[in-house]
Predict the structure of DEAD/DEAH box helicase.
Amino acid sequence: MGRGERDAVARGARLHEAAQAVVGDHRAAVDAVRAALKPIHDAAVARELGAIPVARLQDVTEGRLRLGNVEKSGLGTVGGVLEAGPYRLRQIPGVGQRTVDQILAAARRLAEAVHETVAVHIDVDRPEPSTTALVTALHVLVEAGPDARRAVDRATALSERLGPLLTDAGPAAGRFGMLLAGREKKGRALAAVDGIRSLVDEAEQAGLPELLAQASVDLLRGSSSDIAAWVDFELRSAEYYSLLAEVSGRLPDAAAAEGFLPEEIAERVRTQQLDDSHRRVSLRGYQAFGARFALAQRKVILGDEMGLGKTIQAIAVLAHLAAEGQSHFMVVCPASVLVNWTREIEARSALRVMVLHGPDRHEAFADWKGRGGVAVTTFDALRGFPAPGGGEVGLLVVDEAHGVKNPKTKRSQAVALWTERCERGLFMTGTPMENRVVEFRNLVRMLDEGVADSLGERDALAGSVAFRKAVAPVYLRRNQEDVLTELPSLQRTDEWEELSASDEEAYRDAVRAGNFMAMRRAAYTRPEKSAKLDRLREIVREAGDNGQKTVVFSHFRDVLDVVGTALKTGPTAGLPLLGPLTGSVPAGRRQQIVDDFAGVPGPAVLLAQIQAAGVGLNMQAASVVIICEPQIKPTLEHQAVARAHRMGQVRPVHVHRLLATGGVDERMVRMLEEKTRLFDAYARRSAVAESTPDAVDVSDTELARRIVEEEQVRLGMTDGRPRTAAD
């Protein structure tokens, strides 16, 4: 027994200490969130109880209580009853001890229910010391990211294995311990040393010590400033709310999160492992279940409502299969979301991604065939590629799958052939399909003919329970109200579009003329070939299918006219269309338009110039906001969005900003983010900034001049002096 054994034990002890430190650091960060959350949650519970009429106690006791004298005494709410307590209640004429006990028992039952269900909303426009403390505490965990969560999980597992081994190896840790140990203890010590050596070698080969060290640094770093934490919250509020739900334990109903699947299918999905080693984003519980569903059932439709992260779930499936050794994947989507898919895969995974689009798509396809990765292509381009042999492609993802519901179209036939040849298929659509059985059956047939054959019109007539049971093997849908227990008040998505050839031609003409304003709206100059307009129609259609109202903002009146004309045809033709709400509309009439918009039962669309609608109007009904182009003044954009997102918070507000790659939009976004983000975020929280948004914005003229000059150089148009026409 010598130095080798002692060194092995020492290495194991150091690793065990590092693992316990990470677990402790994470626990401290979580405890900080809980401590910051408690006063906010308690206040929300008190507000809720203070709004519940005392008559509701009748519901809890099935009408057995007599509450007339209690109400006459001035105790009109459940909160008031609890605050009064037994002594004051007993002083009310006609209220005996038994009634007091019954009233308080019923009030406490309601209070417990409220305590479990009340949601905490963080108002970014009205930060208070309590919410700032919560956002700052959450910022630590969000910044630490998935790697910290992974490190904690591995540290916990490692500690559970190393701890007992280090105890058994105790005699081998010193020079004389083994001399004093008996035969049995000595044998146990030697076996433990071998186990420690093996565990430490395995951990070091996997890079675990470095992972643990980095996690501890990230968890102990803290937030650089309150402002930085608030800015980060605005940029990725969904991650903050996801962590908040996890830490608070206020998770959605399990059955709802699992799409009300039959138990035998749900249990199979729960036992499905999900490897996160190639993934760079944390999943909410329902998202992890969705990814597991796709893996366990192999060929499925993910029909989650818009805004629940279908793309992230698909990336989680891709990452898992890549970790298992699969090398080739195909994503098929509309051209309007091609760039979004590429950026999401790059940002949220370690997977190689290739775009198969444009004149070089066949060369790119050959490269993908040889090297592997995630290929992203369009429905039309897919038709030109040879279908794979069996087992070649690990997963086929079809986004906006409702677009291939007609089996007679060539794009549907191409998707059906690829689905047949691929081991796994994941169709995605936010359009509810329950009431479109014929169309739905066509999609299901591509995935599972047996389920399609068993699905008849009677299933729709029998109601949602019968329908869900019939399609459960292939279909999973969750709604926001069922799974988002902590509703984020605002979700932002930058919709990056690749300009069509027609868009590009119009854009070049505007750049050649040095006309900055024409450059900004070039993507709408030729509506019949507009990539941005195609995406806008898709968003409006999906919002309409889900019963949501949409506000479309643009700086330009003529862009709103183009949008209005486009929405009057095709799938959006039946939606009520209001506006445009412009600067030339009198103030009183503007509010009437907004009121009419709110009064429409069901989905509707309101068109509005961002300057006219950005201040003073509350668009109380909208839950989807589309911004047609980036704004020169960031404050103007924030204020316009705030008109919708300050409504009753029944649903989160989804903001889609339409951006074109490679030109004026990309340059504007980059310049404004680099130069004004932190300062603007700070200044917007002052009364001066709210009343005078120009105070914190960069110069319009200087920004326009720089962008025009840079674009003329990029496109080889350096002859002549650039100019920036106002319109």
In short: Residues 646-650, 675-698, 722-727 have pLDDT under 50 and may be disordered.
